[in-house]
Amino acid sequence: MSKKIEIMLSAFLFSMIAHVSGCTDKDTHNSKLQLFPIASITVDSASTIVSLYAEDSLQVGFNRLYIGMKTTDDGHEVDNAQVELIPMMDMTDMGMMHSSPFEEPSGYENGYFQGAVVFTMPSYDMGHWTVRVNFLNHHNHMQGSAVFNLIIKNSSDVKALTIGADKYIMTLIDHKEPHVGLNDFEIGLYKKQTTMSFPPVTNAMVNIAPTMPSMGHGSSNNVNPVHTSMGRYHGKVNFTMTGDWQVDVNATINDTTLLSTHYDLTVE
C-alpha cells in the first residue's frame, strides 16, 4: 500500500465507525438529477449522513459518482466540504489489493460532490470493490469516512495495455446508444505507476479510424480526440449506417507508438 494511501487511511481511522443503511429500491432514482442510488451511510462520529449515487448501475469502465451529505442533527444539506475518493479492489483469493484511476470531487454542484472512478475489472466471488469517501464537513467542522461496498458488472470498455515495461489503462467514456451520423467519442487514458497510482496521460496524440468489417468500408469526417482534462480525450466518430462497427484507436507520445487497440460498437 502506498504511503499516500496509508496517510489518508490513518487520518480517518478514528471516524470509521458507521452504520450502513442500503437503499432498498434499486429501481427508484433520486429526484434531483435522476440518479441511481447506491447506498447511504450514517457516520455517527461526524454527525453526517453520506449518500452515494451514480448515473446507472456500476460497471467496468468510467463511472461518474455523486456524493450527497446531510447533518444528522438538523438534516442540513452539506454544500461546503472537502471530499476524497479511494477506490479499492480486494482480491482475497490472490491475497492482494489494488486501486484504479479516479477523479477527485472538484466542488459542489446541483446538490452533489461529483467525482469519477474507472473500475478496471468486475466484481467476483472472491474479488470485492469498495469506494471510501473521506470528508471534512465544514458545516460542523467534523471529519469522517464512509466505505461503500459495490457490485461492478463486466463490460468491454476498459483496455489494459502494455508497451515494454509500461502499463496503461484506456477506457471509453459516454458511448451509450451510438447512432447513425456524427457521435461524440471520448476516451480516458492513464498510466499504471503502481497498484495504487494511475496518473492521467495528458500529452498523447490520439487517432481513430472507424470501419465496418462486414461491409468492408470506413467513414469520413471523423475528428481525432484531443485532450480536454484529467486524461480525457474528446473527438467525433461518424457512423454512416446501422450495424456493427469497429473503432481503431492509436495513441502516440513524442511520435512513438504508445497504444493500439479497438472498440466494437453496435449502431442502432
Concise structural overview:
The chain has 268 residues and is mainly beta. Helix content is 3%, strand content 56%. It contains 1 helix and 20 strands.
Key attributes of the depicted protein:
single chain; 268 residues; mainly beta; Immunoglobulin-like; 2 domains; 7-stranded antiparallel beta sheet; 5-stranded antiparallel beta sheet; 1 helix; disordered N terminus
Please write out the topology.
Elements (H helix, E strand, L loop, with lengths): L2 H9 L7 E4 L13 E8 L4 E7 L6 E11 L9 E11 L4 E3 L3 E2 L4 E2 L2 E8 L7 E11 L4 E9 L7 E6 L2 E8 L7 E12 L12 E8 L4 E2 L4 E7 L2 E8 L3 E11 L2 E12 L1
Antiparallel strand pairs: 1-2, 2-3, 3-4, 4-9, 5-6, 5-10, 7-9, 8-9, 10-11, 12-13, 13-14, 14-18, 15-16, 15-19, 17-18, 19-20
Describe this structure in words.
It is built from one helix and 20 strands. 34% of the residues are buried. The strands form four sheets. Strands 1, 2, 3, 4, 7, 8 and 9 form a seven-stranded antiparallel β-sheet that branches. Strand 10 (127-137) and strand 11 (142-150) form a beta hairpin. The protein has one helix spanning 3-11, and strands at 19-22, 36-43, 48-54, 61-71, 81-91, 96-98, 102-103, 108-109, 112-119, 127-137, 142-150, 158-163, 166-173, 181-192, 205-212, 217-218, 223-229, 232-239, 243-253, 256-267. It is mainly β and 268 residues long. It starts with a helix and ends with a strand. Helix content is 3%, strand content 56%. It folds into two domains: 3-150, Immunoglobulin-like, CATH 2.60.40.1940; 158-267, Immunoglobulin-like.
